[in-house]
Each structure stands twice: as structure tokens, then as C-alpha cells.
Amino acid sequence: MNMTWNLDSLYPSFESEKLKADRQLLGQLIIDLKAWAEGNLKREGVSVAAIEDFLRLYNDYKSVYVCLLAYAELTLSADSNYELAMNLADDIEQVSSEIAGVAAGFKRWINTCDHMDELIVSSPYLLQHQFYLNELLLQSRYVLNEDVEVAIARMQSTGSKAWGRLYMETASSTLADVVVQGESKQATLAELRSMAYENNAALRKAAYEAEAEACSRIAGVCAACMNGISGEALTIYGMRGYQSSLEKVLVASRMDSETLSAMLAALQESLPAFHTYYQKKAELLGHSTKLPFYDIFAPIGEESMKISYEDAQKTIVSSFATFSEELANLAQKAFDQRWIDAEPKAGKGGFGLCIDIFPIGESRIMTQFTGNAIDISILAHELGHAYHSSCLAHETMLNTDYPIPIAETASIFCETIVNQALIASSAKKEAHLILERSISDAGYYLVDFYARYLFELKLYEKRALGPLPVQELNELMIACMKEAYGESIATDTIHPYMWMNKAGYFMAGYEFMNFPYSFGLLFAKGLYAEYLKKGEEFVARYRQFLSATSKHNIADIAKFMDIDVHSIDFWRGALKLIETDIEAFISTT
């Protein structure tokens, strides 16, 4: 099977007439939007016609912008050294910085109207965008004047976004020597990370040590990137009036602090159960004391064969079919039409990625498929994002934005479908191994991501006092890992550069890309429990839920599924499902 994606439905090449035409159209739409701003923002009074004109122009602009930037970013994700892609990404960001002032001005302008609700209900088009407009009104309190917003957007293209690209280029092109099946080979950091799931214990340890050595070589560059990105975030969010970077993320995620507090409190209560699991895993792997960190994702049981990409496809499609034909068809379409780039190679990002391209009704997915069992979960996860976006295909561009925690719910729900289908169709011994892998994945999303949440929380506290050198970043990461993993892990085996293998820390504007995954796992667990109770009735309701996620905040959309995310009992209940799995695993091992 072909393991690389096809981007032709976007553009056949960087020199294509279609791309040139869209780039020209983007420029014209920017001119039109600036002309709209000049003709309306200085006038007194807010009219329905003027708002409608802006929304239509902005929808058109977003549709072209998304296609051009997606083409550049996707190409760079698969090849970080592709110069034409770099040039296009820089160009799009530079010209689009002009829109920052228009967008800011529009938010401030509609906020001057004391009867927006009346205007919205008087127009079908505004009513269609009611939630979007209300979100803009909420955000208007954090908006600076137009000139400042334009200056910020321009500087970010050579500031935080440039730092992010430098990190991606550095991390994706770094190689290290490791012995695989008796032969020395050079491996990327992404390939070394994937070896944590290998059956061969010596290979896991060697790959982990090689990763630490490789990270030490680029630590200075990555620290500079992290300091640049986090420092800029602190400055800009402070100017906007946010109390912290975390508050900014919660507002952007449409999630209140009450929800986060309830989830984290329940998670902290559950940590001892995971510590017990890691202690049992250490015993099963033959360690006399605590579990070394390089074995935290090690498979349990007899050595297994590698999984082919074709078999992974069949497993995912057939598993999705146990839930719904629509979901299975979406996955089959993604494989057949080559939406997926799964081929491991140097220069490629070492992370799973799904970019939704709403104007063409498609998504593109990137993974590094090495044939380990975890690769099926990663593919299922990213296909979950693609399915989520397909449920919003009827919306305008401005109505396709949904909160990241809910995005991770959709993706992890699909992982759960695959795991449960595999357990149900497997022999007892194999099902036991799949159960262990499911617990291991849960530990990653909950325990590991809790450590990374703590790290980022403390990073911003310390960064406010000045840049953090490599040594301080190392010490901070290890301290947070110890707090999350407790006494179950041999802490002297945690390599100090773990802060470098999370791309989210280096993505400008995407701070705290950790708790959304914990939310997604637990919310998905709660939803799957409901599916087991209600069956086919749940399937249709779940699709309606995903279709509504772009027009609700998290607390309200959760109520659609009869869930109260403010209640610690909901989170305890979801965690209890995992604790029950841990108890079953330990008692039958």
C-alpha cells in the first residue's frame, strides 16, 4: 500500500495555476476586508447589512487562507526542509497579518452595540452565526486596538512562529546511532520514541539512551525556542488582560476553571491506582525494584510480529464498523484516497497530526507507522479527528471551530472503539495483552500529561522572571515527572530532556496542549460507557453531539449527552472504569 498522502485535491504543486489563482484571490479578499473596515468601523451604529457583509467576506477569506496554509504546513510536516513550503507559509502569514487589525476592529465594533441580540434574530444569516458572534463579544474584552493587533501579528511571524519552525526543523532532522537486530543504524528522534513500544528490552533501553544523547546535542537550540515562544506568550497575553496563559487557553477552549479543577482533583485521587499498575508492570518485566522509565510503554507478553500497514487498515475499518457504517466508510475513504502520510523518514515531524481542510471536505493525517501496536491507536486517533470534522461539513468556515478538549474526545473515542473491538474478537491471552496496552495508553494521557501540565504551569511562573537555561528546564521536568509518577518509577532513569519531545510546547498559540487529552480520554470513557448501555440509539445521538460542538461551550455541549462536567463524581466515575481495568489486569496476571 502507498503510505504517503496525495495533496492534489488541494494543489498539484507550488507552481500550479490553481495555487497562484488562490494566492491572488487571498490578496483581493484582504483588500476587500480592509475596505469594509474603512467604510464601516468609523461609522456610528452597527447595522445588520454591515455585519452580514463582513461575515461573508471573512468566510470567503478563511476558505482560501485555510487551503493555502494547509498545503504549506502539510508539506513542511512531511519534509521540514522544503523551501517552497517555507516560503509560502511565511508569505501567507505575512499578508494575513493585515487582517488582524480588521478582525480586532470588528470585535470592538460589535461590542459597541447594546442590542446585538435583536440584530442577530432579525437576520437568518446572523442567526446562523449567532454562537460565533457571541464568542467574538466575549473575546472583545481581550482585544487591543487595531494597530497593535497588526503589529503583534507581524512580529509573531518572525517571533514565536519562527521559533516553532526552528524547533520542528531541528527535532525532525536530528539523528542518533542505535543498534537494531545487530546492525547499527541512524534513527530520527521520532523513530527512537517509537522503539519504546518494541518487545526487545535491550533495544528499548538503547533507543532511550540514544534519544537522551541526541537531545543533549540540540538542547540549547530547543531551550531558546521554548523561551522565545513562552516569553512572547506572557507578554501578549498580559497586554490583552489575561491573568495567565492558562486563563487564555481556558477561554479559547470554551472551558471554565470549575471543569478543569474538578477533573484534576479526580485525577490526583486516581494516581495511586496507576502507581500500582506501574509497580506490577515492573514485576512482570523482571525488574526487582521500580519500573525504569524506558520500559513504561513496553509490551507485556511474548514477542509478537510486526503489524503491516494493510493489516492496520483492515483492523481499523472493521473495528469502526462495529460502531457505525458511516465511521467505517470515512476511514476507508481516508485510506483509499490517500489522506494519510504514514511513511517513517527523516525530516518528518515525530507526532500524530490531523489537519481538517473544510473547504474541500477532506482531512490529512500524518503519522510515523513503524508496525507496532501503538501505531494502530495513533491512526485511529487521527481518523477520529477526521470523522469529527466530517460531521461539521455542512457548516460555514466560521462555524467549524470547536474546542480542543472536545476534539480530543472524538479522537480518543475512536481509539476506544478499536481497543474494545480487538478485545472482544481476541483469544483470552491476547485480549489480556490488549487490555494492558489500553491501560498503558490511559496512563500516558493521564499520568504523563499531568506531569506535562505541571511542567507548563511552572514554566510560565518561572519564565515571568526570565529565560530558563537547559539545566533548569531539565530539573523542572524531572520534578514534575516525579510528582505524577510517584514511587512507582525509578526516577534516576528519567532522562532530563523529556520537555523536548512534546511538540505542543513549541506551537505558538497552542499552550497547555496536555489537559485537553486528559479531558478527552475521560470524557470519551464516559461516553463509551453510555454507548454500551444504549447501543444504536447512542450512535445517532453521538453524531448529533459532534455536529453541535462548534456552536456550544464545553459545559453546555456536555449537557447534550446528560453529563455534568462540573461534578467531580463524573470524573471519578470515568476514572473508576480505568481503575477497574487495572484491578482486572493485576488479578488475572
Strand order of the largest sheet: 4-6-5
User: What are the low-pLDDT stretches, counting only 5+ consecutive residues below 50?
Assistant: none
Alpha-carbon distance between the termini? 38 Å
Helix content estimate: 55-70%
Helix/strand-derived class?
A: mainly alpha
How would the global form be characterised?
A: globular
| Number of separate strands | 7
Instruction: Report the sheet-strand fraction.
Output: under 5%
Describe the biggest sheet?
3 strands, mixed
* Cα gyration radius (Å): 24 Å
Provide mean pLDDT, rounded: 94
* Multimerization status: single chain
**Number of helical elements:** 22
* Secondary-structure element pattern, one letter each: HHHHHHHHEEHHHHEHHEEEHHHHEHHHH
SSE blueprint:
Elements: H1 17-40, H2 48-78, H3 83-110, H4 116-121, H5 124-128, H6 130-139, H7 146-158, H8 160-173, E1 175-180, E2 183-188, H9 189-194, H10 201-240, H11 245-252, H12 257-284, E3 291-292, H13 309-321, H14 325-336, E4 340-341, E5 353-357, E6 362-366, H15 373-390, H16 404-425, H17 428-463, H18 470-485, E7 489-490, H19 515-534, H20 536-548, H21 554-560, H22 568-587
What's this model, at a glance?
The chain has helices at about 15-40, 50-80, 85-110, 115-120, 125-130, 130-140, 145-160, 160-175, 190-195, 200-240, 245-250, 255-285, 310-320, 325-335, 375-390, 405-425, 430-465, 470-485, 515-535, 535-550, 555-560, 570-585, and strands at about 175-180, 185-190, 290, 340, 355, 360-365, 490. With about 600 residues, it is mainly alpha-helical.
Give an account of the 3D structure:
The protein is mostly helical and 589 residues long. The protein contains 22 helices and 7 strands. The chain has helices at residues 17-40, 48-78, 83-110, 116-121, 124-128, 130-139, 146-158, 160-173, 189-194, 201-240, 245-252, 257-284, 309-321, 325-336, 373-390, 404-425, 428-463, 470-485, 515-534, 536-548, 554-560, 568-587, and strands at residues 175-180, 183-188, 291-292, 340-341, 353-357, 362-366, 489-490. β5 and β6 form a beta hairpin. The relative contact order is 0.11.
